[in-house]
Amino acid sequence: MRRDDAAHDVPVDALPTRGIVDGPFEAPSWVRRERVDFHLSFHGSRQRRPQHARPTSRPARAQPSAARTGFPSPAPASPPIAPAAAEAVAASPFTTLGLSVPIVRAVLEEGYLVPSPVQSQVIPHGIAGRDLIACAQTGTGKTAAFVLPLLHRLSSTPRPDARSGASIRALILTPTRELASQIAERVSAYGRHLVVRHAVIYGGVSQHRQEIALRATPDLIIATPGRLLDLIAQKLVRLEAVTHFVLDEADRMLDMGFVRDVRRIVAMLPSARQTLFFSATMPPAVETLARTLLVNPVHVAIAPLVTTASTVDQSVVFVAKADKRALLEDVLQDAAIRRVLVFTRTKHGANRLSEQLDRAGIGAAAFHGNKTQGARERALEGFRQGATRVLVATDVAARGIDVDGISLVVNFDLPNVAESYVHRIGRTGRAGATGRAISFCDREERPLLSDIERLIRRRLPIADRATPRPSDG
Ligand code: AMP
User: Fold this and answer.
1) Measured from the CB, is residue 140 less than 6 Å from ligand 1?
2) pLDDT the model gives residue 310
3) How far apart are the C-alpha atoms of 460 and 74, rounded to whole Å?
4) Ligand 1 centre and the CA of 369: distance in Å?
5) 321 with 154: CB under 8 angstroms?
């Protein structure tokens, strides 16, 4: 979520990309140019400070994050707003979408000037309480598309009597713990001027802190299915007051085998509720699930799968399996490539490659489901901060990697499932920034490459003419 301006300095010719036919596209107009500290102005005159003037890439917070604790911030819900900030809020296109002042204020502080297409299309229906199904990839601004109307509705309707024991009015269900904590972080950011309490619930960590957060009667919980069901079974979570339900990344939820868990959870929700359903792709199984969850939904389709990576320069290199590591080290010789995400097919492969890179003096860490939550968070933080240059990940774990400024994605192994290719390369070129994706294809992987090319309906340009496309078959 953090924009790292330094990473945007990477020269476009940073890779051996002879033969690439598609250049990077223009960044879409909704991408913010700078983060704005309007909250600094609440106590005085209006000040605007571009992000590069900051010592870190993290935005200043008006109040401490409630993401992990679920406790409401001690700061007042909505401190007085200076005239200049009020003017900016009134003039913002986010106000035109119908969002309330404290939410638009927070969005402006994030530096968002214009809503992204998915936000323009989803937010008014979200505010109106309609059910909705949206086909949108990560990187399109979809998180704000569901979080903003949710916060709007939660903050404009009274809380139920907490003594009833069922405080939770909204549930966001997401497939991975990383996504859960990143959504929670966004909820904290967009809700910083509201008193909407939230808690994050995911497995792989002790449930103690989550229990404490639940005792603080959150309005909203962001959860992965397994741990949520555990806590429900322990009677620590009750869903009977839920009026708003978001299913995020439904396709991945199904891929990860969570469909039964999702159905069990949905069966516990009141039928009088609003449901927002998000998926990057719409295979028939996802559509079937959607039909059972939604009532008369609005349909929104953003950036169809085949065009999602329009800001990513994609290429393929034909290389023998045994030569892949040397090729990767060669590519990484270019010090201008600062933050690199490498995909391997197996956890073991990720470990081995990251150790080998480390031994070759290239700072690397592995990121996969066999690592403890703590190890994953440390690896991610090192990567975010720039201490680790290369993160070697597997597909499932990578769903939750939301790190801006990834200048290069390397498919060290091609994915078995073509859709994963689109998810992988979507980790770079985020929010309209340009990025590169290079795929290493060995002889056995050629059928996988064909699957990918069929899906994205184009042939990948060859990165290195020295290794031309082998004749098919
Ligand atoms: P998402 O698709 O929700 O993962 O968002 C991708 C990135 O876009 C995140 O870093 C967001 O902070 C950023 N973003 C979301 N909405 C906007 C907007 N309207 N203007 C600029 N950046 C945005």
Assistant:
1) yes
2) 65
3) 53
4) 26
5) no
pLDDT mean for each 10 residues of the chain (473 residues): 30 26 40 46 32 35 35 46 89 96 95 90 97 86 96 91 77 93 95 95 94 94 97 95 96 89 97 95 89 95 57 89 94 88 94 93 87 82 90 79 83 89 80 80 92 80 67 48
C-alpha torsion 375→51→197→219, nearest 10: -90
Q: Give the helix ranges, DSSP H, for 225-361.
A: 225-233, 250-255, 259-267, 284-293, 324-331, 347-359
Distances (CA, A) of 450 to 144, 307, 371, 417, 458: 35, 17, 32, 11, 10
Q: In this structure, which residue's CA is closest to atom 16 in ligand 1?
A: 141
Is the CB–ligand 1 distance for residue 303 below 6 Å?
no
Domains of the chain: 39-48+66-301 (3.40.50.300), 312-456 (3.40.50.300)
pLDDT of residue 11: 27
Atom in ligand 1 nearest the alpha carbon of residue 137: 2
Q: What share of the chain is helix, strand, coil (3-state, %, to 5)?
A: 40, 15, 45
Distance CA 452, CA 422 (A): 9
